[in-house]
Amino acid sequence: MTTTATVAPSRSVLLRTGVIAAAGALPIAGQLYVVLPLTAEIRGLSGHTNSTAALSSTVFALVYAAGILALGPLADRFGARRLMVASAGATAAVTLLAAFAPSAPWFLLGRAAQGLAAAAFTPATLAYIARTAPSSARVPLNTAAIGAGLASAVVGQVVAQLIAPLAGITGVFVVFAVAAAVAAVAARTLLPSDTAPADDRPSAGAVHRAIPGLLMRPRLVLLYCTGLTFLSALVALYTALGADGRWPSATLLILRASSLPAVVVAGLITLRLSAAPPRARILAAVGIAVTGALLCATAQTLTVGIGLFAVIGAIALAAPSVVAEVTRLGAPAIGAAASLYTVAIFGGASLGAPLAAALGNGLGTVALGSAAVLALGGLTSAIATRT
């Protein structure tokens, strides 16, 4: 099966790939977080219950995870760019419909539809990068895609918080729908196709049958375990930060937002370290993340800010290198391999709040636990990448 472009893309094509990957991830992956500041607006929907606001996140996340496994591997059948365009376009359409949901039940149905539509974008993007970019460019491009996904957790909430007082849920969702539509058009018109010849494509059944085989490869499974630790630790830290109760809301907003530039810094560092061995990049970044989590354990405002900056920056450094190894080891089932990694990442995110609760929601204890989780991820990556 042909999975790699035969002609190296130009620098301008690589630049467009990175920009579209990042710009698309912000409104599409950001759908997971956009409802978090909208609790009051959701309670204004007819037919709402006390659990509607929480369910609006849960139903999206559950369908999103299932959709990644169902739709992501189809990049190997239909082409990654096609799947990117279809996912972004469908996300725009269902987000626009959800913007005008007449009641809470319809809104929750719209959230489920958003989860399904958005699910394919990240694995398709990672598969597209793996197929079309030379090996030297994959880590920087993965950094753009994954870094934007991390940044969407902050950007999505901030944008929603700014728009909601003026235009409510409808205004927030219309803005995100337009942004997703722009990403679909940009991917369709500005990115070269990666579709293999018709006689060289696996069947739709074959791309899903590749999943059990990938899970039988020990190095891949260890790298998926590494991915599982990243957002579980980060979400646990952010959960404890809010639940700890020692900081006013204005300080919390600053602490949360101040880590956003770390994604940009990580991208700049990645450009300079792209020639370094993957093992060295991953282990160094995980070491920085562990150190950042330990700084958070002091529960002092300045050191917590520095610690969060270090953790999110280190994850933005490590995750793209892990993805590059996953897609390399998963070939030729690149779409399926990227899908499993995406499930691991977001599966870890769903474990963050329970981890914080199990550790008592105190920032000091949760930070120590998060450091241990990240160190475990470093151990599994060290084993997976040893020669």
TrEMBL record:
<feature type="transmembrane region" description="Helical">
    <location>
        <begin position="12"/>
        <end position="33"/>
    </location>
</feature>
<feature type="transmembrane region" description="Helical">
    <location>
        <begin position="108"/>
        <end position="129"/>
    </location>
</feature>
<feature type="transmembrane region" description="Helical">
    <location>
        <begin position="282"/>
        <end position="300"/>
    </location>
</feature>
<feature type="transmembrane region" description="Helical">
    <location>
        <begin position="363"/>
        <end position="384"/>
    </location>
</feature>
<feature type="transmembrane region" description="Helical">
    <location>
        <begin position="338"/>
        <end position="357"/>
    </location>
</feature>
<feature type="transmembrane region" description="Helical">
    <location>
        <begin position="53"/>
        <end position="71"/>
    </location>
</feature>
<feature type="transmembrane region" description="Helical">
    <location>
        <begin position="253"/>
        <end position="275"/>
    </location>
</feature>
<keyword id="KW-0812">Transmembrane</keyword>
<feature type="domain" description="Major facilitator superfamily (MFS) profile">
    <location>
        <begin position="1"/>
        <end position="387"/>
    </location>
</feature>
<feature type="transmembrane region" description="Helical">
    <location>
        <begin position="306"/>
        <end position="326"/>
    </location>
</feature>
<protein>
    <recommendedName>
        <fullName>Major facilitator superfamily (MFS) profile domain-containing protein</fullName>
    </recommendedName>
</protein>
<dbReference type="InterPro" id="IPR011701">
    <property type="entry name" value="MFS"/>
</dbReference>
<feature type="transmembrane region" description="Helical">
    <location>
        <begin position="83"/>
        <end position="102"/>
    </location>
</feature>
<dbReference type="Pfam" id="PF07690">
    <property type="entry name" value="MFS_1"/>
</dbReference>
<feature type="transmembrane region" description="Helical">
    <location>
        <begin position="141"/>
        <end position="160"/>
    </location>
</feature>
<keyword id="KW-0472">Membrane</keyword>
<feature type="transmembrane region" description="Helical">
    <location>
        <begin position="166"/>
        <end position="187"/>
    </location>
</feature>
<dbReference type="InterPro" id="IPR020846">
    <property type="entry name" value="MFS_dom"/>
</dbReference>
<dbReference type="InterPro" id="IPR036259">
    <property type="entry name" value="MFS_trans_sf"/>
</dbReference>
<keyword id="KW-1133">Transmembrane helix</keyword>
<feature type="transmembrane region" description="Helical">
    <location>
        <begin position="221"/>
        <end position="241"/>
    </location>
</feature>
